[in-house]
Amino acid sequence: MTLAAYTMRALPAQMSGLMAIALDLQWSWHHGCDELWRQLDEEIWEATHNAWLVLNSASAERLQQLAEDPEFLAQYQQQLNRHEAFNQCPTWYSENCGNQLATGVAWFCMEYGVSESLPLYSGGLGVLAGDFLKASSDLGVPVTAVGLLYQQGYFRQALNAEGEQLEFHPYNDPTMLPVTPLRDSNGEWARVNVPFPGRTVRLRAWKGQVGRCELLLLDSNDPRNEPGDRGITSELYSGDPEKRLQQEMVLGIGGWRLLAQLGRQPALCHINEGHSALALVERAVHWQQQNETSFEVARLATRATNLFTTHTSVAAGFDRFPTKLARLYLEPWLQEIGQSLETILTVANGGSSDLNMSGLALGMSGRFNGVSQIHKQVTQSIFQPWFGRWPAADVPAEYVTNGVHTP
């Protein structure tokens, strides 16, 4: 489906490469292009730091003026050459890892803090996810990230005259974000379906470019969905457990189905927190169907190449869903893949009364880690109940200390 709203605007031939530069979020950490965006529309650039919005807001007259400005064209050509050289040059991965991850790495997270121009994050988890993608791009590691495109994202805060918090939910207009509809091999807008109780939720796929890495985003705001379902991806971290489960189904089940629809078969799957645990189940089911095995064999086979990173410091922070709610929403999907909720509960937490998403992630992953040396010890403690009589010190948690990306 080709929509006029997403047709690229016409640019003067002398500067046609600005489109590719503006859609690659690499400009958010390599600032050589800042002056180009400032010259296009200084007011919008200073207010938003959104190169894609600047490019689409600049008047045709201004574009033509700059197309006839030798100094601007020289700056533009320099940045275009740098951008092309970055994408073509050898990387740490290509020089040291050969073909070890030929089919790439799938990376799932509920939020991504790549840039303020793409407000799909609330705090540390998202900023870490964004920095992970930037570092992967710099190193040349073939990572494909999967997340959600929120219509409103996380609320913005302000204070009134009495010092009380106010909350605002500005709308994210997808046409003004540095993303484009993801096209399949036929040039059509990629979509995936996820079964819900009594209906199917249709998801649209978007693509963001983070240097050498792709960021694939799903949203449920498809006019063919019921009004309530269109709002599944409206906001990040809803306080409603029902909506949280819906979002985690969209991210996990829909995300892995999108990769499969695109013909991707990642060598590794890394989930950042337990929100994406259903992606690991969907991955096992695909492996089961391809190899005609039992689910348990498929779980063990895929488990070896699944990695789970937890940031949680207290067990109360785990996402838990009552069995009644989990059965209501997961049953249509489980029937479709030939599994039972009891199987999922057994993997997650030994069949207890709630569906623990971190427990499910643990049961589906071969390795899991905390995010600092001290947090490793905390992780060993809060995950000890999954390891029977093992002393907490023997729980096989690892750690990778959180870092900050530097260009």
UniProtKB/TrEMBL annotation:
Residues 11-118 form the DUF3417 domain. The keyword Transport does not apply. Pfam families: DUF3417. GO terms for molecular function: 1,4-alpha-oligoglucan phosphorylase activity; pyridoxal phosphate binding. It comes from the Bacteria. It comes from Marinobacter nauticus (Marinobacter hydrocarbonoclasticus). The keyword Membrane does not apply. It catalyses: [(1->4)-alpha-D-glucosyl](n) + phosphate = [(1->4)-alpha-D-glucosyl](n-1) + alpha-D-glucose 1-phosphate. The lineage of its organism: Bacteria, Pseudomonadati, Pseudomonadota, Gammaproteobacteria, Pseudomonadales. Gene3D superfamilies: Glycogen Phosphorylase B (3.40.50.2000). Keywords: Allosteric enzyme. GO terms for biological process: carbohydrate metabolic process. This is DUF3417 domain-containing protein.
